[in-house]
Automatic annotation (TrEMBL):
Subunit structure as annotated in this protein's UniProt entry: Homotrimer.
Matching Gene3D superfamilies: Ribonuclease E inhibitor RraA/RraA-like (3.50.30.40)
Cofactor dependency: Mg(2+); a divalent metal cation
Name of the featured protein: Putative 4-hydroxy-4-methyl-2-oxoglutarate aldolase
């Protein structure tokens, strides 16, 4: 029986990336969907899963014409530039972002299209998280706000004068993985895994069986060692 998106993502969030990766292996999808190990969370403990909303940013051919004399001139130029770059942000305002993961392909360029302001807005609206093959800036503030970001670079740069819009809701290459809109994007301390939506239920079936076997084996060791059970032994409840 085919699961709804809501049912699927609720179940996927109960299992570990290790279980999902083993499930991919069982289906012959070895290393498929495994993002580069350069893709790391802004802090330990970030975990999320959702459906990909894809964005591509490309190196800009435009250049700053002249230095600006006043902050007002700079603000005006920055606003004009970001009207193009943040096309995706305007699109996101028109849809329900709950259970979405923003996946941004910058080709690894260390520009901060994400930061403490826009990520806080996405958190308020219920977005699961963001994955960017490039930079996220304002790292300290992002961590204070407990927003969910994985990035392949750390940076203080903005994208203004550096990157331009290359398309939205299209297949993108993110940290070595082709991501299609609607693919399932999962992240935890081990990294980021992308599961094709059409195979996600099959992967989940194996992942649940693998997790159940793991929990049983570890529960026996907890008991032998006199350790108190914790939530990792009962993830599926």
């Amino acid at each position: 029986m085919t699961m709804t998106d809501k049912e699927l993502i609720e179940q996927i969030r109960k299992v570990r990336l290790a279980d999902l990766s083993d499930g991919m292996d069982a289906l012959g999808l070895v290393n498929v969907g495994s993002m580069s190990t350069e893709m790391r969370p802004l802090r330990p403990g970030i975990a999320f899963a959702g459906f990909a909303h894809t964005v591509k940013l490309v190196p800009s051919q435009r250049r700053i014409e002249k230095p600006y004399s006043t902050p007002e001139e700079y603000f005006e130029a920055n606003k004009a530039w970001t009207q193009d770059v943040y096309t995706f942000s305007r699109e996101l305002r028109e849809i329900d972002v709950k259970d979405k993961v923003l996946v941004i392909d910058q080709g690894g360029y260390p520009g901060g299209v994400l930061g403490s302001d826009n990520m806080l807005g996405y958190k308020y609206r219920g977005m699961a998280g963001a994955v960017v093959d490039g930079g996220c800036r304002d790292s300290f503030e992002c961590n204070l706000e407990e927003v969910n970001v994985f990035s392949s670079k750390r940076t203080f740069h903005h994208v203004t004068f550096r990157l331009s819009n290359g398309g939205t809701n299209i297949p993108v290459q993110c940290a070595g993985v082709t991501v299609h809109p609607g693919d399932v994007v999962c992240a935890d301390d081990d990294g980021v895994l992308v599961i094709p939506r059409a195979r996600a239920e099959e992967v989940l079936k194996f992942a649940i069986a693998i997790l159940e076997a793991d929990q049983k084996a570890r529960a026996a060791k907890y008991e032998a060692l006199g350790m108190q059970p914790d939530f990792t032994l009962n993830r599926l409840s």
